Amino acid sequence: MTDTSGSVNLTMRQQQAAARRQQIIDTAARLFAEQGVAKTTTRHIAQEVGVAEGLIFRYFPTKLDLVRAVTSSAHVFLGGLRIMLQDPATTAHPLADVMQRVATVWLDLLHREAALSSILFGEALINPDIGGLLDEVIHEGASNLEHFLEGRKQRGEITPQVDTKTVAHVYMASTLMFFLRNRRLSEEAWQKEADAFATHLTTAWLRMVAH
Predict the structure, then answer these.
(1) Nearest-angstrom CA–CA distance, 14 and 171
(2) Residue 40: left if φ>0, alpha if ψ -120 to 50, beta else—which one?
(3) Which of 50, 97, 123, 195 lies at a 20 to 30 A Cα distance from 183?
(4) Selection from 139, 151, 165, 169 nearest residue 77 by Cα
């Protein structure tokens, strides 16, 4: 009985810890977007969450680790893209459909957190740590896509001579440049332009890589 109860309590503690960690990430993302990473202190984040500042460092040893967790969250940058590419159902869809969805999801994630995205890209120009972190973000996103494309290449959907690493980075970089160029559009104009861009990018990209 004791063992069973202990196991249940441990699971509850783990769930509570995971919930608290996510609360810290969500709060940090909001504050970073509002006032920038440099101006947001861990003390301020702790006050907003309602915990001691030391608890922040139990989950995230450094502030940069917290920023990294924010960029990897399910609703920011990498998380949604990673989930989509790793979903077994994705493999059942034609390559053209998946690649258009990749562009759409990546752009949607960037646009949904446009304030945070703009802050991070701006601070990356003057803060080497943030710049290195964004390099990690883009590299991981492209690596996830590269892994997916390698699978499609083995299935014969991509020309054998194509370097999947290069075309994955080209695809991700193209969507990133579109966001940076158009992030200030109105919601209606953004949606129209983003949808058209995803279609045109996918069409041009497939001409380069597919049989």
Answers:
(1) 38
(2) beta
(3) 97
(4) 139
37 token code pair? 């990473």
**Cα–Cα separations (whole angstroms), residue 11 to 14, 90, 109, 116:** 5, 31, 31, 33
Q: Mind giving me the DSSP string for 64-126?
A: HHHHHHHHHSTTSTHHHHHHHHH-GGGGGS-HHHHHHHHHHHHHHHHHHTHHHHHHHHHHHTT
Contact 175, 142 (CB under 8 A): no
pLDDT in tens, the chain (211 residues): 444 444 455 688 888 889 999 999 999 999 999 999 999 999 999 999 999 999 999 999 999 999 989 887 755 566 667 777 877 777 788 999 999 988 988 888 888 888 888 888 899 999 999 999 888 888 888 888 999 999 999 999 999 999 999 999 999 889 989 999 999 999 999 999 999 999 999 999 999 998 6
Judge contact between 25 and 48, C-beta under 8 A.
Answer: no
**Per DSSP, what are the bridge partners of residue 158?**
210
User: Facing residues of 210 across strands?
Assistant: 158
For residue 27, the one-letter residue type is T
Nearest to 81 by CA among 32, 145, 6, 173: 145
Give CA–CA dist 32/127, Å, rounded.
Answer: 14
Say which residue the tokens 């998380």 belong to: 79
State how far the Cα of 95 lies from the Cα of 152, in Å rounded to an integer: 8
Q: Which residue has the tokens 């967790």?
A: 69
